[in-house]
Design brief:
This protein is an alpha/beta fold. It has one domain: Alpha-Beta Barrel (TIM Barrel), CATH 3.20.20. 28% of the residues lie in helices and 20% in strands. The protein contains eleven helices and 14 strands. Strands 3-4-5-6-7-8-9-10-11 form a nine-stranded mixed sheet. The chain has a three-stranded antiparallel sheet with strand order 12-13-14, with no helix packed on it. Strands 1-2 form a two-stranded antiparallel sheet. Helix 6 runs parallel beside helix 8. The relative contact order is 0.12. The protein binds pyridoxal-5'-phosphate and iron/sulfur cluster. The site of iron/sulfur cluster has 8 residues, from loops.
Length: 338
C-alpha cells in the first residue's frame, strides 16, 4: 500500500511557497506516494502536480464555498436529493488524495466520519419513501471504507424496491490502485450491475498498476464510467482530451461527463471560459469515436442542477455571463464573478 503523505510538509519532495503554505493551512495538503510518483516535473506545468499541490491562488477568490446549497438539500442524513428519482449518499468524508479542484474542499478539515448503520438505514428508508430510482454512493471516497462495510451499504440500498441503479463514485483507482482490494471487489461484484464512476483527468494518470486494476474491474463485471473535470492548465487542450477519452475507451471505460469546473471558492483558477469548453468538444467531434465523446456538464449555482451541453451547442452570452436553461426550464445567467 502506498503511504499517505499529509501535512508534514517536511516529507515533501518539493518546497511550498509562502502563498502555497497559506493555502495548505486552509485546504490541507494530502496525497499518496503512488500519485506523487506520477508527477514528472515538480512544478505547475505538470498536470498531476497541479492536481495535488497547494497553490496561493486558492485563497484569492471570493466565490461561495457552497454554491450548490448541498447543506440545504440534505434531506435525510448524508443524502443530497436535488433531482427527481435520484440522490447522492455521502458514505464518508475522507479521500486518499486531496484534489485541489475539489468542490467539497470546504469540508477537508472536518473530523473523519463514516455513515453509521442507522444513517444508512434512514437513507434507504428515505429512498423508498421518495421512490428514488438511482443512488450515487459518494463521499469522500467510499472505496476507502472497509470492503465488508461498503458491501453492507450497497446491500441495504439493493433491498429498496424502488432503487434500480446503484453507482459508486471513487477516485482511489486513480490515486492509489493498490489500495483497491480485490476481496472488496469480489464482494461487490455479486451486487451488480454496479456502475463505478471513476475520475481520470489526464493521460499521465495511466500506469501499469492502474491499468491492471481497470482490467480486473472490467472482467469482474463492473460498468466503468469516467467523470473528468475540465481544468485550466491540466487538460484544456484538444490533444490532451483526445488522448484521455480514447485512452479511457480503450481501457473499457466510457467517458460519461466532462465537468465544467465548479465556481466554488478555492478552485476558480482552474475554471475554463465556457466558450472554450464547448469549442473543445466541437473540435473533437467527428475526429474522435462518438463513444469517446462525453457531455459537458455544468452544475449551476443555487442548487439548480446540472445542464448538459453537446458539441453543437450555441452559447448565448449576455455581457460576461452565459444564458443557460435548467432542466426545469428556468433561464439562468452563469459565469465567473469579476
Ligand atoms: C450530478 C448529480 C446527480 C446525478 O446526475 P446524472 O446527470 O444523473 O449523472 C444526482 N444528484 C446530484 C446532487 C448531483 O449533483
Ligand atoms: S476524490 Fe473527489 S471528493 Fe475527494 S478530494 Fe478528489 S474531488 Fe474531492
Amino acid at each position: 500500500m502506498s503511504r499517505l503523505i499529509t501535512d508534514d510538509h517536511s516529507l515533501l519532495p518539493f518546497k511550498l511557497s509562502g502563498a502555497a503554505r497559506s493555502a495548505a493551512a486552509i485546504y490541507p495538503f494530502k496525497t499518496t506516494e503512488y500519485y506523487l510518483g506520477l508527477v514528472r516535473h515538480l512544478n505547475m506545468s505538470d498536470p498531476v502536480f497541479l492536481q495535488l499541490a497547494p497553490d496561493g491562488r486558492e485563497i484569492e477568490d471570493n466565490h461561495s464555498p457552497d454554491p450548490f446549497c448541498e447543506e440545504e438539500k440534505t434531506k435525510a442524513p448524508r443524502l443530497i436529493h436535488r433531482y427527481p428519482q435520484r440522490a447522492v449518499f455521502l458514505a464518508n468524508n475522507s479521500c486518499a488524495s486531496h484534489c485541489r479542484h475539489c468542490m467539497r474542499k470546504r469540508r477537508w478539515t472536518e473530523a473523519p466520519s463514516v455513515a453509521s448503520v442507522e444513517e444508512v438505514k434512514e437513507a434507504a428508508r428515505y429512498c423508498q419513501e421518495k421512490q428514488i430510482e438511482d443512488i450515487i454512493i459518494s463521499g469522500g471516497d467510499p472505496f476507502l471504507l472497509p470492503g465488508a462495510y461498503l458491501d453492507e451499504i450497497v446491500a441495504r440500498f439493493r433491498e429498496v424496491p424502488s432503487l434500480k441503479i446503484i453507482r459508486i463514485g471513487t477516485r482511489l483507482p486513480v490515486v492509489d490502485p493498490e489500495r483497491v482490494k480485490r476481496n472488496m471487489l469480489n464482494k461487490l461484484r455479486k451486487r451488480g450491475p454496479l456502475y463505478l464512476m471513476l475520475h481520470y483527468n489526464h493521460p499521465q494518470e495511466w500506469s501499469p498498476l492502474g491499468d491492471e486494476l481497470l482490467d480486473d474491474m472490467r472482467r469482474m463485471g463492473f460498468l466503468l464510467m469516467n467523470q473528468s473535470v475540465l481544468l485550466k492548465g491540466v487538460n484544456d487542450s484538444e490533444e490532451t482530451l483526445y488522448h484521455l477519452f480514447m485512452g479511457l475507451l480503450q481501457r473499457g471505460v466510457k467517458p460519461y461527463y466532462l465537468h465544467q469546473c465548479d465556481l466554488v471558492r478555492g478552485v476558480t483558477h482552474f475554471w475554463v471560459e465556457l466558450t472554450r469548453s464547448v469549442d473543445l468538444l466541437r473540435n473533437l467531434q467527428g475526429h474522435i469515436s462518438g463513444l469517446a465523446l462525453p457531455y459537458l456538464a455544468i452544475d449551476l449555482p443555487g442548487g439548480l442542477g446540472k445542464v448538459l451541453l453537446g458539441p453543437s451547442h450555441r452559447l448565448q452570452k449576455s455581457g460576461s455571463r452565459y444564458k443557460l436553461r435548467t432542466f426545469r426550464g428556468k433561464d439562468v445567467f452563469y459565469g465567473k464573478e469579476e
